Amino acid sequence: MANFNTHVTVAAAISAPLAASAFVMGFAHMNEAIFYALAGTLGGLLPDIDADESIAIRLVFRLFGALVAGLIIAAWVNQLPHWQVLALAATGYLIVRFPIQWLFEQLTIHRGTLHSLLANVMFAAIAVPIAYHVFDLSAKTAWGIGAFIFLGATIHLILDELYSIELSGMRIKRSFGTALKLTDWGEPLASLVLVLFCAAGYWLSPPPDAWLSVLKLY
Ligand SMILES: [Zn+2]
Question: Which residues contact 112 (CB under 8 A, 6 or more apart)?
Fold first, then answer.
């Protein structure tokens, strides 16, 4: 399989020019294009968050912990003394980093359901409402971020699959076919949970009308 650096580099190398073209063609402002390039790069490491001890899981849970801490500060900064807000924010961060991350590691197996196209749809379906409700971005930007997350994560799966073909002898390693899949059919319950997350994410998302009207013009 491709390693962390390869995944990040390739995801960035594809997302950044795409985001730049969106800017050049007038689909996105400069700051939106930067968000898209970052979203594509982040997407490129999401499928490996099911690998315990991976750089991907640490990075994603650090970001998630920082997000929770930031939300706690935003919610209470005017209501409580500052030292209490900071203590709460630190507690929130630590809860995400240790008990929640530990639970997540127990519940997932590497290259299981989270390493699939269905999971990629779910990552996007979670990213859109977070971008829209938490970061207060427009519906159009939020959907653009979701699309780039999906793109980056799908590049990851394709890259893992390419790495399982040995070009020299055209031999195929045993891992072939485990990376790029619709879902893990051996884990129907986990797949169902992903479908439910997709539905909940879509339900919490703003309507994608802004993009639909842009696409209709072409
Ligand atoms: Zn992978």
Answer: 50, 184, 187, 190
Note whether residue 143 is domain-resident.
Answer: yes
* β-bridge pairing 171-172 and 165-166: antiparallel
Residue type, 121: V
CA of 158 to the centre of ligand 1 (A): 9
d(CA 161, CA 186): 19
Read off the pTM: 0.88
Q: Is residue 61 part of a domain?
A: no
* pLDDT tens-digit series, residues 115-167: 999 999 999 999 999 999 999 999 999 999 999 999 999 999 999 888 877 65
* Tokens encoding 147: 């699309």
Q: How many domains does the chain have?
A: 1
Near ion ligand 1, which residues have CB within 5 Å? 47-48, 160
**57 lies in some domain:** no
